[in-house]
Amino acid sequence: MLTKRIIPCLDVKDNRVVKGIKFLNLRDAGDPVELGARYSDEGADELVFLDITATIRFHKTIVELVEKVAENVFIPFTVGGGIQTVEQMDKILRSGADKVSVNTAAVSNPNLLTEAAQRFGNQCVVLAIDARRSKDKPHKWQVCVKAGSEPTEIDVVEWAIQGEKLGAGEILLTSMDADGTKVGYDNELNKAVSDAVDIPVIASGGAGKLEHLYDAIVDGGADAVLMASITHFGNYTINQMKEYLASRGLPVNIQ
Amino acid sequence: MIVVIDYSVGNVRSVCNTLRHIGCEVELSRKVETIECSAGIVLPGVAAFGYAISQLGELAKLIKKLALDGKPLLGICVGYQMLFDHSSEYGQYDGLGLVSGSVIPIPAGSQSRQGYLTALSVPHMGWNQVKLPEGMDLFVGLGKEKNFYFAHSFYAEVTDQQAKIAYTDYGFALPAAVQKANIYGLQFHPEKSSKSGLKVLKNFAEICEKQKKEKTPK
Question: Which of A48, A130, A245, B147 is a plausible cystine mate for A144, CB 3.0–4.6 Å?
């Protein structure tokens, strides 16, 4: 049976890993090459790398950095940030990534998901959704683009369903309200999306304690949990997280 | 030297990085001479089947001939699926036909036996446990079962009587690896399967080395 995945996330800005709170107040968290190698070696199930320098434009420099990170990463490696075309996806994959994540570009051109799935297979296409709780509609979330800076009128659950139909193979679902707060994932959001689609959902934003990981999987229905603050700043090792989940009866990958 | 076939798809670099990391001499190439003089061939693949087979083009015949002549061949993911006769991913396509079987979609929503999972997602994505039968060369030294990383929406229904098969459980027994003489295929990604994956690739490198020694005239 498939194990639940523990996925550290490197938010990269100007060649450094950074981590903020609710997408703001970024703090340095280290060198992406070193951190990537460390997580791969420590038994992380996957690594996500998001170039947050400019989500509006694709940066050529990201390709070189991805190459360097990938040299020491022997686990699945997802890269995102400003990717707009299948040609750019191809460059990223050829530089050592296994999957590409798209967010803003998919919102402005949903067909990109289909083109990418047809060329690379849908297991390669991750739809990243930055979700913010709606202020006026209860139990609803709105899709935000451009690194969370621009809210849209699109409903998160509907977008997830559409994304799956268009060709996304996985959804990386970030709660902007919970991001960096360490108060736990938004499991109402996770549940709403994971119930609505058949593809795997990665819960992101809010991990602070070990039980948060368990809750995202059991209450939120997530197939994988993504975290940044609690691993980068040394609160928990990957192994501690896996042992905890295993002790509570969840299937995890211990090599 | 092990040649990794460069056919403009997916994660060719990952496979090369990993093989280099374990000490192999690797060339990423689509040159006929390089492929012919290699000790073994790796056919990687992150792509849709139709795109992959069209990008492979004329090399398909060469790879098939060399494999039938006894050169070790390792297909990974879509590279593995291409070893079979046929695929129905986004169309109808013929594969290399080295192992009998066809590539079909994973049925969505298969029920899991554990309580908290009601439906299984497609793609089959993540780490799953593979039961490793005795007598499959790639799994020497790995014990009876290990976790490997999968990422695919289609799988091969293997009908070849001569093929040894290792299975994983995804609501049904899903073929995770095949071996037919010197032809090896892995549905999972060894280059992304951490320590167990590195060991599988080391085993392939050793098979290539051994084969080369036997073929070299004394």
Answer: A130
As its CATH architecture, domain B2-215 has 3-Layer(aba) Sandwich (3.40)
CA–CA distance from A243 to each of A38, A126, A237, B65, B117 (Å)? 18, 27, 10, 48, 20
The residue annotated as part of the active site, out of B24, B77, B89, B124, is B77
Pairing of strands A125-133, A99-102: parallel
Tokens coding B165: 């098969």
Q: Does the ipTM exceed 0.85?
A: no
Q: What are phi and psi of A126, to 5 degrees?
A: -105, 125
B116 touches chain A (CB under 8 A): yes
pLDDT digits (tens, 9 = 90+) for B93-114: 999 999 999 999 998 765 544 4
CA B120 to chain centre: 23
Residues 74-93 of B with CB under 8 A from A: 78, 89-90
SS3 B146: strand
- Which of A17-26, A173-182, A233-242, B113-122 is the least confident region? B113-122
**Residue B76 structure tokens:** 């990974």
Angstrom distance (rounded) from CA B153 to CA A124: 10
Report the C-alpha gap between B39 and B209 in whole angstroms: 7
> 3-class SS at B170?
coil
State whether A121 and B108 contact (CB < 8 Å). Answer: no
Residue of chain A nearest B142, judged by CA positions: A255
Q: Is-cis flag, bond preceding B123, omega within 30?
A: yes
Instruction: Name the CA radius of gyration of chain B, rounded.
Output: 16
Any chain A CB within 8 A of the CB of B192?
Answer: yes
| Distance between CA atoms of residues A176 and A183, nearest Å | 12
Cross-chain residue pair B10–A93, CB shorter than 8 Å: yes
Does the pTM of the predicted model rise above 0.80? Answer: yes
What separation, in Å, do the N-terminal and C-terminal C-alpha atoms of chain B show?
A: 19
Boundaries of every domain in chain A = 5-247
The residues spanned by each domain of chain B are 2-215
Q: Read off the DSSP letter of residue A149.
A: T
Contact between A96 and B46 (Cβ < 8 Å)? no
Report the topology of domain A5-247.
Answer: TIM Barrel (3.20.20)
